[in-house]
Amino acid sequence: MVSMDYAQGASVPWGNDDSAAPRYAGDGGAWTAQGGGGSGDGKGKKKDKSDKSGKGKSKDRSDKGDRSDKSDKSDKGQGKSWKNDSRAERTKVTKTLDRVEHDAGFDEGRSAIQRRLEVAAESSGKLSAVWSPSVESLLRFRPGMRVADLDGASCPGFDGTKADAERFIELSAHQIAFYQELLYANGVDGGKRRMLVVLQGMDASGKGGIVRHVFHQGNPMGISYHGFGKPTEEELQHDYLWRIRRELPKNGWIKVFDRSHYEDIVMPHVYGTYPEDVWRARYDEINDFEASLLDDGCSIIKIFLVVSRECQKKHFLGRLDDPCKYWKFDPSDLDARARWDDYMDAWQEVFEKTSTRRAPWYLVPADHRWYSRAVVSELLRVGLRDMGLNWPPARFDMAEARRRLEEEDAAVIG
Description:
- This protein has 414 residues and is an alpha/beta fold.
- The protein has helices spanning 87-103, 113-128, 135-139, 162-188, 207-214, 233-236, 242-246, 263-271, 276-295, 309-321, 332-338, 340-354, 369-385, 398-413; strands at residues 22-24, 31-33, 194-201, 223-227, 254-258, 298-306, 361-365.
- The strands form 2 sheets. A 5-stranded parallel beta sheet has the order 4-5-3-6-7, with helices on both faces.
- β1 and β2 (31-33) form a beta hairpin.
- α1 runs parallel beside α4, α5 (207-214) crosses α13 and α8 (263-271) packs antiparallel against α9 (276-295).
- The longest helix has 27 residues, at 162-188.
- Residues 1-86 and 105-110 have low confidence and may be disordered.
């Protein structure tokens, strides 16, 4: 599906030493190996003695095709720490999740609306403490970052196990559901707040899995999904943003885009289907378009899933081996794969020209699906929380409503 599959992630490391999580060195800098958790291929690099996994010796039980290690086998019942994490570090994450679960602000007995909101915010803050440093500081695109140099197999900022990540997602999902209902209620009340989530990445980067796993506890009435493919004949009769505008979230809703308006820059950049001056003009047009959405109350979260070529190949082979997944594969996927470097260059320019202060790009390692799903869950929950919404007040005569219901009871008794 060459028409819409872009360059997937990169095979070069986030911090190539798999004994250390990457740290960004600042403007003009790069990800460096400076302690912490995470994982990389470590090819040609000296491995930390605590890394006893060995390449490809085990399979991820829940994510076939994901790059895994022996620690994945121990996820059941928490097990051993993942990769380089010490038991103390893993326990710290687990204890944090324990506190969140114990203190979770889902107490339906609370009568004070403001207190319920405060408790939810406190619990969300405790969940965010699982990440060190924050997802915002680690994965937000900054000048000097190169997508081609990032390692899809790394897990920056998260020192827990796969089981910890899955537990994190479950706890985070409860709060996402809480905040999503709050957003929807405000939309019903006439508020204009809404959210657009843009998912981009090469084919087999896990976009569909994120939609299934991260949004599964939300209310279907307030969440919708749209995947953009090759433009139809009707769509080609209009400007490239026409079909995007038709799918924008309604007030109070969350809309997930699987691919987006950014395809209308990347594809002509890679394949030369439009004159350069035409597609280059779209950088400013898209920045203006997104600024207008933000001004009108629409939050935007833009995520690029960074998957390695090796991981993509494993997923492609898995699709060829499984008759139930033939529908996911198209020979054109291999044509796109053959132009990997061209796609990486095109996406690099997209990030440099469209990652703005109000609508930044997040470059998320995606070889380990559990990690990328946890990151997206964090970004979504924090984005909803930071809208600062409150429950809409009753815009009707409360006493009259009660009187009518009581009269109904009296009539039944009489």
